């Protein structure tokens, strides 16, 4: 009798659990559905609208100016880069003898070449990757994020090196 009682109780408990689970599942499925497709909270869009939005995102939402480099690096001419879109990244080549000067708030990442910091005063540039300050003439490690807090600071090709720098720039800059 004890064995029959245990079997009946186990079958009843399993059956009640299955029934309770299915009732709770039906309630949970219906409770969370508030954003039906086609409502104001979840609008249906057309293919042309999506394509137009993608084209605007690719173009960056505005015109950007491509920097020009001087034809003769010994000439003290300057060229300015775009600072209109702070999220846009420009790839800039810096030749030996040129200085890439950052606008306040600009960020540089040296991708190729040997660079050193250029600063007119004693203060330097923040290397955010290492968490340290690099002063004038200090070497810059490749693939490190540099932050320029003020105008007039920049980077240049290390003295004696004959190869260009390739730099990713976010923010304003000019080449001297």
CATH topology of the domain at 67-175: Jelly Rolls
- Count the E strands: 12
Low-confidence stretches: 62-85
Query: Could you give the order of strands across the largest sheet?
Result: 1-12-3-10-5-8
The first-level CATH class of the domain at 67-175 is given as Mainly Beta
Would you list the SSEs in sequence order as H and E?
Answer: HHEEEEEEEEEEEE
- Name the overall outline: elongated
Percent of residues in helices: 10-25%
**CATH architecture name of the domain at 67-175:** Sandwich
Q: Number of helical segments? A: 2
C-alpha-based Rg, rounded:
31 Å
Structural class: alpha+beta
Sheet having the most strands: 6 strands, antiparallel
Report the end-to-end length measured between terminal Cα atoms: 99 Å
Q: Mean pLDDT, rounded to whole units?
A: 77
Strand content: 25-35%
Biased composition (Low complexity): 64-86
Region (Disordered): 58-88
Protein name: Copper amine oxidase-like N-terminal domain-containing protein
Give the secondary structure arrangement, pairings included.
Blueprint: H1 2-31, H2 47-59, E1 79-80, E2 89-94, E3 99-102, E4 107-112, E5 115-119, E6 125-127, E7 132-134, E8 139-140, E9 145-147, E10 153-157, E11 165-170, E12 173-175
Antiparallel strand pairs: 1-12, 2-11, 3-10, 3-12, 4-9, 4-11, 5-8, 5-10, 6-7, 6-9
Mind explaining what this structure looks like?
This protein is of the alpha+beta class and 176 residues long. The protein has a domain at 67-175: Jelly Rolls, CATH 2.60.120. Helices cover 24% and strands 27% of the residues. The strands form two sheets. Strands 1-12-3-10-5-8 form a six-stranded antiparallel beta sheet, with no helix packed on it. A hairpin with a 4-residue loop joins strand 6 (125-127) and strand 7. Residues 58-88 are annotated as: Disordered. Residues 64-86 have a biased composition (Low complexity). This is Copper amine oxidase-like N-terminal domain-containing protein.
